[in-house]
Amino acid sequence: MSNTTILTLVGSLREGSINRQLAEVAVLNAPEDVDVVTFDSLADVPFYNEDIDNDEHRPAAAAALREVAGQADAFLLVSPEYNGTMPAVLKNAIDWLSRPYGAGAVSAKPAAVIGSAFGQYGGVWAHDDARRSLTVAGAAVLDDTKLSIGSSITRFAEVHPKDDAEVAGMVTGVLSALAGATAVAAPAA
Fold it and tell me: Which end of the chain is more exposed for a tag (fewer CB within 10 A), N or C?
């Protein structure tokens, strides 16, 4: 049996962001049968435009995103909260991955959203919006698999999330849930 591949998309483009660090925690703490792949070129993917979404004009970065997403068994979005919602780069990635309609790279694949924010609720609004957008795009969102870490500026002021045993354990739990959902969703051989 092959490993489950989980594609991670990080909503913060800032190199040292707490959410990028949470993605690192996912890579470092993946269960034995799980490979976590992070797509680090969301900044290069132009805003979705149906006029350029064809074989002749599709931007290379969008094609690369779709290719890696097509190879993934599940998706993990790691999102901060910007002005009460998810960052535009995540919404844009979902838009690209939702096409072609009904057959996009996220279609029927398990997905979960985690993240951290400065506020006490840890980005709950952004995470709810991301789950809603993924659902509309056709993903099989694990609504009960949530991780929103509040007060990140304080909690991680002197410690990297990878060194926070509670956080590492919770991230591993999310990855295990995604891997379990892919096993349930996989067609019988």
Answer: C
